[in-house]
Amino acid sequence: MSAHQSLFEPCVLNASLTLANRIVMAPLTRCMAGPGLVPTQAMADYYGRRADAGLIISEATIIRPDGQGYPDTPGIYTQAQIEGWKRVTDAVHAEGGKIFLQLWHVGRLAHSHFSGEQPVAPSAIAFEGTVPRMRDLSYETPRALAQEDIARLVEDYAQAAENAITAGFDGVEIHGANGYLIDQFLHFDTNHRDDDYGRTPENMSRFALQVVDAVVTRVGAERTGLRLTPGAYTHMAADARDREVFDYLLARLNERELAYLHLGIFDDSLTFDFLGGRASEYLRRHYSGTLIGVGGLTPESASEGLAQGKFDLAAIGRPFIANPDYVRRVQQAEPLVDYHQDMLAELV
Ligand SMILES: Cc1cc2nc3c(=O)[nH]c(=O)nc-3n(C[C@H](O)[C@H](O)[C@H](O)COP(=O)(O)O)c2cc1C
């Protein structure tokens, strides 16, 4: 029997989805899509090797061309991309696994280098810095979205979710975390709007909730997850007023019976004064549904967190890059290979 038994208990997410264990492979961008941002056979093999996770969440996948902020990130808006993803979902399902697609638009972290279009965002405020992996490109000042652009975006998220289901995914995770488009609406640092999408917690939550509701209408709440970063730890500055936005948003999410809510953070030992502690503790207090914890979890801290009810599922990121057989190693109490960023050069 494994030393970390709580990781290996099945999890009934809802009437249509039961996970074989509580280990989630966190979404991990690898920048390895082929021409046309189409997933490759190597990506299918990579995900297939990790299919013994209770749930895999795919690397973030762009919903339309102007959502791209890194080279060779896959898309889910062309027929060829849908067919490429079908190879991935087939590989995971052949091994008995489950996989959600993470729906992504980077907002102001996009670059016209990729799509030929000026980036869009809630407000015309540039992020200072250069595009990762393309250090000669500085971020551009985005165009503030008009209300009709927002309606189009909501529809594009819903269409991308439908495309994911067509490609065989078990569900979708809306990427509302890590300073990308949806998160840019949720924080005062990046949202300076004075219309129905800015100024107040209700208005600043509006875009996130419209995307959630459109995706739920298209593919079902039981197949929709959401990732959120209340702590604003990356790509933006935290503001104590953000807390009220998340209090409001989480209360509304409690009414929606999503498959799960997933924390977005690299290190969950960080504490935030304005959240009253760790981001996972804040979400646990305010969200009543299934919560995925993440951020520097080891087999020990993950199983303890589950046993103590801090979260219901444990997402593992970097260790899954270093250990395709992470689940087996933990179950058999074998040592894990340490992650190193040089491992990003190859899909193993
Ligand atoms: C190389 C790399 C790529 C990542 N890509 C994504 C991504 O596409 N979407 C996302 O929500 N988070 C992404 N993350 C964050 C991870 O999902 C996870 O939250 C983070 O790595 C902390 O978990 P860990 O300590 O187990 O690695 C990425 C992290 C790394 C290291």
Automatic annotation (TrEMBL):
<dbReference type="Pfam" id="PF00724">
    <property type="entry name" value="Oxidored_FMN"/>
</dbReference>
<protein>
    <submittedName>
        <fullName>Alkene reductase</fullName>
    </submittedName>
</protein>
<dbReference type="GO" id="GO:0016628">
    <property type="term" value="F:oxidoreductase activity, acting on the CH-CH group of donors, NAD or NADP as acceptor"/>
</dbReference>
<feature type="domain" description="NADH:flavin oxidoreductase/NADH oxidase N-terminal">
    <location>
        <begin position="6"/>
        <end position="333"/>
    </location>
</feature>
<dbReference type="GO" id="GO:0010181">
    <property type="term" value="F:FMN binding"/>
</dbReference>
<dbReference type="GO" id="GO:0005829">
    <property type="term" value="C:cytosol"/>
</dbReference>
<dbReference type="InterPro" id="IPR045247">
    <property type="entry name" value="Oye-like"/>
</dbReference>
<dbReference type="InterPro" id="IPR001155">
    <property type="entry name" value="OxRdtase_FMN_N"/>
</dbReference>
<dbReference type="InterPro" id="IPR013785">
    <property type="entry name" value="Aldolase_TIM"/>
</dbReference>
<keyword id="KW-0560">Oxidoreductase</keyword>
<comment type="similarity">
    <text>Belongs to the NADH:flavin oxidoreductase/NADH oxidase family.</text>
</comment>
